[in-house]
Amino acid sequence: MDEGMELKGCVCRIKSCAGQLLSMEEDLVTDLDDDSWDLVWRDLRLKATFLYIDLSRVISRSENDERRKALTLLANKFFYCTDELGDAVTSQSVPAMKMCYNDTAQALRELLAALAPPQ
């Protein structure tokens, strides 16, 4: 497969998954029953896994060392926030979840901005 096409596919999946994560806010801030908490946690983990795989491909194939380092820092921040959000979901704490979701969403927006091609 053409490497450029693979990277375009990775970026497309990243944007799609990011859009889904950013739209999860309503699901996260409502009262959930026990089964819903588990589904939200699993959905969050699944999305984070796909993002991890695609981001690692994009970062490793980045030709500019400075860009690679910047993307790595932003990705690490995002995954740290995602882990914190997962912990909040596991504890079923809506206030903690709201705070962690906001941090995760902000880190994801910063990462998406950095992935955008330079103007």
Automatic annotation (TrEMBL):
It is found in: Plastid, Chloroplast thylakoid membrane. InterPro entries: PsbQ-like_dom_sf (IPR023222), PSII_PsbQ (IPR008797), PSII_PsbQ_pln (IPR054099). GO terms for biological process: photosynthetic electron transport chain. Keywords: Chloroplast, Membrane, Plastid, Thylakoid, Transit peptide. One of its GO terms (molecular function) is calcium ion binding. The keyword Transport does not apply. One of its GO terms (cellular component) is chloroplast. The keyword Transmembrane helix does not apply. Signal peptide: none annotated. Belongs to the PsbQ family. This is Uncharacterized protein. It comes from Hordeum vulgare subsp. vulgare. The lineage of its organism: Eukaryota, Viridiplantae, Streptophyta, Embryophyta, Tracheophyta. The gene is LOC123401170.
